[in-house]
Amino acid sequence: MKIKDIYTPIVLIAAGAAFIFILILVFLTNGRSRKLIASKLRIGAFLLSFGWLVTSCSTPTCYAPAEPENSIRILPKKGNSSNELYNYLSGDTLSGYIHEPTFYFYSFQLVDSASKQIKQAGELIIDSTLYHEKMFHFILGSNLTQGTFEINYFGEDSLKSKKIELNWIQRIYIK
């Protein structure tokens, strides 16, 4: 256990007790004592400054962080349970979305996890474009064998002259 985990509650309880004691004294003097009011405000500000300790969030804010640009997610196949999210058959269609797209074209490579060989490559077929997302799909090759595969994604400029690997690798299992 850390030292701050031991002393922080003790300090907060003592400051809270002092605040209540001074609050009662201010009430009994009908608010005529400037020193008591100043002490009450100082202790109250001290207690408010530790409000971050009682929040239930482990991050600086309680909001979920936004997804980064070009983050790619595959949507679960209809009828799959949550533990079968990435189980597919050869010939299945994978659908997903690209959050905050910054490239004109997107492509993929399907790499066998065991042999590290590229088994399929192609462009993502864009179905629709919303304000901050592009919906896409691609069809798994019918000649894929059973195993675990990694999907590597790439972004390409408008002339398709430069291919940039995105840091989004997803694993799927083909039955």
Sheet-strand content, in percent, reads 25-35%
Taken together, the total number of domains comes to 2
CATH fold-level assignment of the largest domain: Immunoglobulin-like
Q: How many helices in DSSP terms? A: 2
- How far apart lie the N and C ends? 47 Å
Number of strands: 9
Strand order of the largest sheet: 2-9-8-4-5
Percent range for helical residues?
Answer: 10-25%
Class derived from helix and strand content: alpha+beta
Main sheet attributes: strand count, strand direction, barrel closure: 5 strands, mixed
What do these coordinates show?
This protein has 175 residues and is of the alpha+beta class. It starts with a helix and ends with a strand. The protein has two domains: 3-53; 71-174, Immunoglobulin-like (Sandwich), CATH 2.60.40.10. The chain has a five-stranded mixed beta sheet with strand order 2-9-8-4-5, with no helix packed on it. The mean pLDDT is 84. The chain has helices spanning 3-28, 34-49, and strands at 71-74, 87-88, 93-99, 105-112, 118-123, 125-129, 133-139, 147-156, 163-174. The protein has two helices and nine strands, in the order ααβββββββββ.
Could you name the key traits of this structure?
175 residues; alpha+beta; Immunoglobulin-like; 2 domains; five-stranded mixed β-sheet; 24% helix
Write the layout of secondary structure elements.
Layout: H1 3-28, H2 34-49, E1 71-74, E2 87-88, E3 93-99, E4 105-112, E5 118-123, E6 125-129, E7 133-139, E8 147-156, E9 163-174
Parallel strand pairs: 2-9
Antiparallel strand pairs: 1-3, 3-7, 4-5, 4-8, 6-7, 8-9
